[in-house]
Each structure stands twice: as C-alpha cells, then as structure tokens.
Amino acid sequence: MVQGFCVKCRRKVEIKNPKEVTLKNGRKAIKGKCPRCGTTVYVFVPSKKKK
To answer: Model's pTM, two decimal places?
Structure first.
C-alpha cells in the first residue's frame, strides 16, 4: 500500500483508492483519499533520471 501525509489529520496514512495522475507541470503523483477524514492526499513519484 502507498503511504502519504494527511495534512488535516497530521499523520501518515495509507492512501485509499490510489491512482497515478500527471500534474499540469508534468510531474507524476499518486492521488487518493485519507481513510480517516476523507481529505485528498497526494504523494509525488520520484522521477527516474539516467546519467
């Protein structure tokens, strides 16, 4: 399961219904809901850069 930080609960929670999304600036993130309060939680996915 994916964990993220819920700003409203002020704790790390396991994201409910995680989905991968692409933001306007091109970054990838995982979006879901907090199981305790229902607030939207985002976790940014690190980009893979090759050298």
So the answer is: 0.80
